[in-house]
Amino acid sequence: MLWVDLMTYLPDDILVKVDRMSMACSLEARVPLLDHKVVEFMARVPAHYKFTLRRSKYLLRRLAATYLPGEILQRPKQGFAIPLGRWLQEDLRSWMEDLLLSSTSLERGYFNAAAIRQMIHSHVSGRRDYSQQLWALLVLELWFQKERSRGGAA
Fold first, then answer.
1. Max alpha carbon distance in the chain (Å)?
2. What value, to the nearest 5°, has the Cα angle with vertex 142 and ends 136 and 146?
3. Do 54 and 64 fall within a single domain?
4. What pLDDT does 132 receive?
């Protein structure tokens, strides 16, 4: 699985995103643990030094403990997610409402207008987080519009 990640997930997904986003922000990003000498060395290290049943990155953590305090090494993994929920409540709210509640969208008949209104209201008021569902509907609606402009049936 490590080899599959190294050959597919990293170059085709994670590294592409890091590269694009760092360049977009005029940042120079480096991935020192992917230096070919480090990767080649780790390919020769036995699995029990890489991970245990309860611990990932075993050897790296042991090395890092020499240089970093425990609270850094013990903290949970953090994602790098966009604040979609807040954006749909604030900055993108009118765009979302205009798009999902437009006559074009509702007349198509694929969306239940009352259900969409309820989801938007619940999300905007903070009663329930519908950000993922609303985002999926927005993307679908944009696709419908694009297909229609290209002469498709949507």
1. 64
2. 145
3. yes
4. 96
Whether 134 is in a domain gets the answer: yes
Q: Which amino acid is at 45?
A: V
Q: How many CB atoms neighbour CB 80 within 10 A?
A: 7
Predicted TM-score (pTM) of this structure: 0.57
Query: In which residue are the tokens 């170059």 written?
Result: 11
**Contact indicator for 137, 116 with CB cutoff of 8 Å:** yes
| Mean pLDDT for the stretch of residues 71-79 | 84
Q: Give, in degrees to the nearest 5, the angle at Cα 90 between 104 and 141.
A: 25
Cβ contact 123:130 at 8 Å: yes
Domains in the chain, number: 3
- Contact between 126 and 89 under an 8 Å Cβ cutoff? The reply is yes
From CA 105, how far away is CA 91, in angstroms rounded? 21
Look at residue 154 and tell me if it is in a domain. Answer: no
In the chain, the amino acid numbered 77 is: K
Q: Is residue 2 part of a domain?
A: yes
**Residue 52 pLDDT:** 81
State which residues form the domain around 73.
Answer: 46-78
Structure confidence at residue 80 (pLDDT): 73
CA angle 9, 12, 14 (to 5 degrees): 65
